[in-house]
Amino acid sequence: MYLSVDRDNIKKVTIKIFDFLEQNNIYHESKIGSEVRSDDIIIRVFSKKDENLIRNFIKNDKEISHCLMKQIPFCFEQDGIGYALDGNLSYNATISKYIKEYIKKCILNHQEVSLNDFYRFVEDIYNITFVDKNNIHTFKRKYIDRGDLRCYSEESLLNNYEEITKLILLAIKEDKFDFYLDLVDICNDKTRVDENIKKYVKKDEDSKDLSIKLIYFNKALLETYKKYDINQVIFAIKKAYIGDFSAFTNNNNARTILINNLKSYDVMKIIRIYSNGDIEKYVNNCLNIIQTNEISDEIENNDLIQKAIYLNKAIITTYEKYNLEQVLVAVKSAFYNNDFGYFTNTYNARDILKENLASDDVRLIIQNKANGDIEKYVNELIKSLDLSPGDSVKK
Predict the structure, then answer these.
(1) What is the dihedral of CA 271, 276, 278, 282, to 10 degrees?
(2) DSSP assignment, residue 5?
(3) Which of 337, 209, 232, 233 is nearest to 286 (CA)?
(4) pTM above 0.90, yes or no
(5) Separation of CA 169 from chain center
(6) Residue 110 in contact with residue 31, Cβ under 8 Å?
(7) 347 Cβ partners below 8 Å, 6+ apart?
(8) pLDDT reported for residue 296
(9) Those residues with Cβ within 8 angstroms of residue 173's Cβ, 6 or more apart along the chain or in another chain
């Protein structure tokens, strides 16, 4: 818990808070800064009950609450108090490292700094390092201090950095206190932490192909939408970002299958690949594809719904990279000749089609919606999603 207090009142505020902690026998590890900053007073407590007692005391004490200064935008805020979690690292030191590297990049590229651009910078670090696990050695060299390695294992520090980086992104984008409390529970789950640490020992412990995970994910999305509405789906995905799948329905075991087969980084990877990280865009596109094809329960049970999603995502990706002409060539080739070679392979779109569809599937999907009319099917899809063509030339 971070409290920022002006210089004239910090002594008075500190005494009142620490007296309250002592009177209520609250165990804490705390410190007071010597300069006016966002973390003048840091209070570390070890239960939600104690946090709630302290927060209510501060909120209801007008003398203290009126002295609190605005928190920085990189932590969660509730009742004027900033919240973070950092394990064996320093939350503020981690943010400072990221800001330093971000500013160096901006200077090098002669660009202005902004909170939104900084968010994208940190998001790229998270995706490349902790989701794709393609940049771990560079990350370790740049961010992990030798002093920390004398006290903690490399794997536990990487897990710690992953948690802090995720928290920074959620604090900037969401800043919802409930998300923070959920993340605290998840990060304190020893079994989950141990499993997460293992993935840094072995580059990728998960043998399941992403296309299979995509099937499980989209089925949970659809089940949740059918039971609730689109807002619940979006909320469920945001919760899944922090490893909590509880907001999905468990109709047809959708939630149980998710929990057994996906991690939070799988969900983030799916959203990033298919909608550039935009959750609402992903959900809208996915539901649009489902509704566009008007697939019956019988067909849905036979997984044609998932094949339609693969086909439409390949159409979208090819159109955004090339143009309508290229898409029509690609679909016709698949429709008539079982040849998927004219689709782009951006985000593995072509490979996924080859692995999961045959020309019979393509014909059935297009027959359901457009009576077998390829041009009508493609044009209605593109129009419904408001897409813009790319400018690449297919060779």
Answers:
(1) -50
(2) B
(3) 233
(4) no
(5) 8
(6) no
(7) 273, 274, 313, 317
(8) 41
(9) 119
Which of 122, 227, 228, 137 is CA-nearest to residue 171? 122
Alpha carbon distance 81, 59 (integer Å): 9
Nearest CA to 55 out of 1, 101, 16, 8 is that of 1
Phi and psi angles of residue 205, each rounded to the nearest 5 degrees, phi first? -80, -10
Write the CB contacts of 269 (distance below 8 Å, at least 6 apart in sequence). 127, 131, 132, 210
Place of tokens 């419904």: 384
Q: Are 291 and 380 in contact (CB under 8 A)?
A: no
Sign of CA dihedral 316, 244, 241, 148: negative
pLDDT mean for each 10 residues of the chain (395 residues): 88 93 92 74 90 95 89 87 86 91 92 92 90 81 79 83 90 82 79 72 50 83 92 93 90 89 85 83 79 46 71 87 92 93 86 89 88 91 70 52
Query: Residue type for 165, please?
Result: T
With CA atoms as reference, report the closest residue to 325 among 383, 386, 385, 378: 378
Exposure string of 148-173, with b = 16+ CB inside 10 Å and e = fewer, is beeebeeebbbbbbbbbbbbbbbbbe
Q: Rounded to the nearest 10 degrees, how much is the dihedral formed by the CA atoms of 280, 281, 282, 287?
A: 90
Query: Do 45 and 181 touch, CB atoms closer than 8 A?
Result: no
CB neighbours of residue 229 within 10 Å: 11
Tell me if residue 299 falls in helix, strand or coil: helix
User: Residue 352 — φ and ψ, nearest 5°?
Assistant: -65, -40
Can you tell me the distance from the alpha carbon of 162 to that of 59, in angstroms, rounded to the nearest whole number? 32
Q: Give the DSSP H or E segment for 255.
A: helix 254-261
Q: Which residues contact 371 (CB under 8 A, 6 or more apart)?
A: none
CB 165 within 8 A of CB 158: no
CB-CB neighbours of 335 under 10 Å: 18
Structure tokens at 277: 């990280």
Is residue 281 within 8 A of residue 271, CB to CB? The reply is no
**The one-letter amino acid at 57:** F
How far does the chain reach from its first CA to its final CA, in angstroms? 57
Secondary structure letter of residue 241 according to DSSP: T
